[in-house]
Amino acid sequence: MIITSSKNGEIVIIMNKTESCSMMHRHKKIIYGILIICMVFFGIFGSGNLLRDGERTSSEPGDTEETATTQVPVTTEQTAGEETHTTSDAQMTVLDVRIQDKIQTMSLEEKVGQMFFVKNDGRFGPDELTQYPVGGIILFAGDLAGETADSLTEKIQSFQEASDIPLLIGTDEEGGTVTRVSRYSALADHTFASPRSIYASGGMDAIRKDTEEKTKLLLSYGINVNFAPVCDLSGDASDFIYPRAFGDDPQETAEYVDTVVTTMRKAQIGTVLKHFPGYGSNGDTHVNQIEDTRTYEQFVTRDYIPFEAGVNAGADCILVSHNVVAAIDDEYPASLSEKVHEEIRNVLQFDGVVITDDLMMSGVSAGYDLDEAAVQAVKAGNDMLLSTNYQEQIKAVIQAVKDGEIDEAQIDAAVARVLKWKNQLGFEIF
Q1: β-pairing verdict for 291-292 and 324-325
Q2: What is the pTM of this model?
């Protein structure tokens, strides 16, 4: 009889036929005793080492971290520093831990500032960031008109140099009716066409090439977020969103969204899916308060589909519209609605950054004052607020935390998502 261990740590006993019969009938108690002793021996001295060896073979070389945590392989979807650790409470990565450590060093004012993606439009210079250390700046005509390629690059770099934490610098370069950069001949050699027309002339390959070209242009100036793609569905030319929408077919739009997000991610530029939960045939919330009376089933079976495709493709951010979506929440605009944000987290299973559309748009500002809108936007679950009136709104959110109206833990969770997004884009945040 031979007692040994297999490669996976199991006890193996080898006996010939005669030994097996006689031993089983005459010495059962002896065999059981030997088995128990061997299992205890290997359990104490062998299996732990075998398990650790197995972990090392499934992990990257030298990928050992704190001994209190359990290692798992780094997948191709994980960015540098995102090795996963399992604790008794939750699954965290090394990056998560570093971000939490970073947040612990930040003041409340710094944390709230990171939650604001502010509209500049030529109104302020880099010195503004000393008093308002915001998370991002979105560029409009006032920032771009009259600039040359060199001057725009220098302007954006001056803002980055003035910020302790690298800024998200965004713009809306959708193509067609919404082009912030390419409309200026000093900044681009042509204005980008609408996705609908590009697809009609060249199919999805043309969409991919167009996305690559847009992305290359924006990154060349230091613009690291494009507020695209538009995920709304529209087939009626009279709809407000029609010129900006890819089409009316959910599956075709989903393929478009997947293509754009995948292409943008390869180039490491930020992606924003908009305008959740979908405009449909409704009016313009820039100028009106809008109520959407469609059924919940219509959203789930049609409008959610392109957003789901974007989430599955790895989109960084979802922008929420100001439509009052009666089927989900008939009280608040979507951007201020906790119920709508629960759809994003629980139905779409999205754990990235959620941002409002600009809170100065009439869809919100006609019914809420500046302070009230900002506080409610945070309470609803937004990680970032797109804000024109950021000075007042930052102060309002800070005061709401001090008054106990907003839990600081919610602020920390939002800032963690923002910092993680910045890390994924290659920013030095530590």
Answers
A1: parallel
A2: 0.81
